[in-house]
Amino acid sequence: MEIQTVQTVAAIRPEQMAGRTVIVIDVLRASSTIVTAFNCGFASVIPVETSEQAYALRSSDTVLAGERHCKKIADFDYNNSPAAVRAGKHTGKHLVLTTTNGTRAIQKTKKAKHVLIGCFLNALACIEEALNKNCNITLYCAGTRGEFALEDGLAAGLMVHLAKKRAAAIHTCDVSEALEACYLQMAPQLPERLLTTTTGRRLVQHQYTEDILYCGQIDLLKIVPIVREKRILSSVSS
Ligand SMILES: O=C(O)[C@H](CS(=O)(=O)O)OP(=O)(O)O
């Protein structure tokens, strides 16, 4: 089995998708919001690209969340914010989510065999679920506004490290190796280190420090969101 890591949405090649298990990693904040949504009782998450698509899905069963330039979209219920989502109880509802990078990354995974959503919060559960699927794995970092995002790379590095502990014979690409080394060096400073990444600084400016510190917690949840057609459902790993 082999693990490749892709640093941005634009960098992914068709062969890094087809027949593989792809883990979409957007630590700040889409992946963390999705994992948290399931922990708060949502039955599914519906990722959409535009606010118009989200408005069209508004009903008594849906809650709309999303951001543009880090700010909540007008008339939406929530920002793309795990702290906001976990403030309420949403049993059985469906979260419609649109974000700058994360939901765009998810839309581009149609050719993958399996698509999982990962971040620090569910790193161990997510990589274990991926290994159990017995396909080659792509760690697909969403990045920020077309650029590599360090927090996504660190979460990928953690998953590489966990995968190698579980399956010593696993093959990895050089990017995966570099990010594992980077994660191991920075791990003692998490989650505070995330405050100084490009996205972290932007979110601090918009007063979302609470989100960043929450998103930097490792293995808080055993929830593994999985993309099925146009929805994301949850499996809870044992
Ligand atoms: O608000 C977020 O969490 C980010 C916005 S950005 O990266 O600062 O543009 O969106 P996301 O799609 O979750 O990366």
UniProtKB/TrEMBL annotation:
<dbReference type="GO" id="GO:0050545">
    <property type="term" value="F:sulfopyruvate decarboxylase activity"/>
</dbReference>
<keyword id="KW-0378">Hydrolase</keyword>
<dbReference type="InterPro" id="IPR036702">
    <property type="entry name" value="ComB-like_sf"/>
</dbReference>
<comment type="similarity">
    <text>Belongs to the ComB family.</text>
</comment>
<protein>
    <recommendedName>
        <fullName>Probable 2-phosphosulfolactate phosphatase</fullName>
        <ecNumber>3.1.3.71</ecNumber>
    </recommendedName>
</protein>
<keyword id="KW-0460">Magnesium</keyword>
<dbReference type="InterPro" id="IPR005238">
    <property type="entry name" value="ComB-like"/>
</dbReference>
<dbReference type="GO" id="GO:0050532">
    <property type="term" value="F:2-phosphosulfolactate phosphatase activity"/>
</dbReference>
<dbReference type="Pfam" id="PF04029">
    <property type="entry name" value="2-ph_phosp"/>
</dbReference>
<dbReference type="GO" id="GO:0000287">
    <property type="term" value="F:magnesium ion binding"/>
</dbReference>
